Amino acid sequence: MEGLHAFTRKAEALGLIKGACIGRDNMSISHLMYADDVIFFGDWSRSNASNLISMLHCFFLVSGLKINVHKSNVLGIGVSDDEISCMANVIGCGVAKFPLKYLGVPIGCNMNRCSNWSPIIKKFSSKLSIWKARLLSVGGRLTLIKSVLGNLPTYYMSIYSMPAAVCNKLESMRNKFFIGCDHDEKKMTWVKWKRCLASKSQGGLGIGSIYGLNIGLLFKWIWRFFTHPCDLWARVIQNIYGLYGGINASPARRSRFSTWRSILSSISKLKQKGLDLLSLCSRKIGNRASTYFGNDTWCGDLPFKIQYPRVYALDTDKNCLIANRISLTDWSGILRCNPRGGAVQSQFDTTLSAIENVTMSDKNGDTIATRWNRFIPIKVNVFLWRLNLNKFPTRINLDRKGIDIGSVLCPTCQGDVETVNHAFFNCVLAKDLWTLMANWWELDIPIFANIFEWYAWLDSLHFSSVMRMFIEGVGGILLWSIWSFRNRMLFSSSPSKKALIWDSFISQSFL
């Protein structure tokens, strides 16, 4: 492909073929390549087409690589269908028309229409029809949602803004699959889907929303436009929309019906809702309390002492940290002398410009992060996450939803209302199991009132982090065993005996 690229550039330099002129400065583009696929652009003339075929024949004679012209297509813009057919006969190829698909992406159609997203919906439906939600554990369903369903529309969403109706449809399909619903089946939802989509640090399962993924992929093009302005596609945007790509222009002044305009429109809509992504384009380095300002590589590919050696030489504290310099407004107190023009002043101004948009951040918040234990199955982690949110079909929770269940007493002991705290910590059966676990691990495990006290006790243990995770995992299996026994007692034709719970718990702890 590099040889064909060199051939094409040489033919264009000699004036044998003429590329298409784009934008205000008549930027010429003759070809685009991706792997073994090539698109040629050029003026609509028979001489241009004949010279292109001759060039490809010369390339075949030199390299031995032959272009299958009969498998190619010609596409004309602004010319009649008869002219396109005549040109196809001259070249010996087929005829293509808009809309079409190239590398799996639709081109030349209005992607704001829901009908053009039907292939994505069909892919979702075909996957879900193969997978039987009822035969998969919640851990298996969560894994499939993250690894497969979340990535199916990525190719489309990396270029086009997904309509809200399509996004809601796909989220509804993912939600039904997660709670174990087959097609056209209804089931009670205990946790809001938005809560499941949230990151684990925000108390969710880290699934991620399709809308958020779409906006992130689209905004990545703007980020690339800023960080790689010399790339070919960025120069094309600059020639059509101006030096800044029309990013700061009002929506009314932007040209209509283009992919780039759709990207800018999506970002503008977010800004109208109060989320200005462009203002967030600043370099964040976190709480780098141990990173040196001049000696470590944190801004660019080289340390500051190599990028700006004259400024580094003037610094009185060469071992200072980033936090000591980012918030600094007056540099006169830390420099041996003030810059007085020349190379020193130039490097000093460049240094200030480089750190201007750098911010220090700490990850703090009021939300409780989702605890995730790598030593236990995913389904148990999801189980504990729901337990932490009190989103369980206990009898009291079912009664609060207006479901007639007859009695709200604990089915195991009949001694109190069946709440989450009672079922897993205050029930006689639960207390006995916690006592057995304490004897097994030779730990002084107190009586907990709820899961938060259990987690607080775990965090207070003076053990290694791995040992604490082991104990937390075993406790999670114990809670899982209590709920499994409760469900078998209520719904199984052959209820389990209480004497066998401990043996089941021990065997599952070693799996």
Automatic annotation (TrEMBL):
Domain Reverse transcriptase as annotated: residue spans: 1-107
GO molecular function, one term: RNA-directed DNA polymerase activity
Domain of life: Eukaryota
Organism of this sequence: Tanacetum coccineum
Nucleus found in the keyword field: no
Nucleotidyltransferase keyword on record: yes
Coiled coil, from the record: none
Stored Pfam families: zf-RVT
PROSITE patterns (UniProt xref): RT_POL (PS50878)
Name recorded for this polypeptide: RNA-directed DNA polymerase, eukaryota, reverse transcriptase zinc-binding domain protein
UniProtKB keywords: Nucleotidyltransferase, RNA-directed DNA polymerase, Transferase
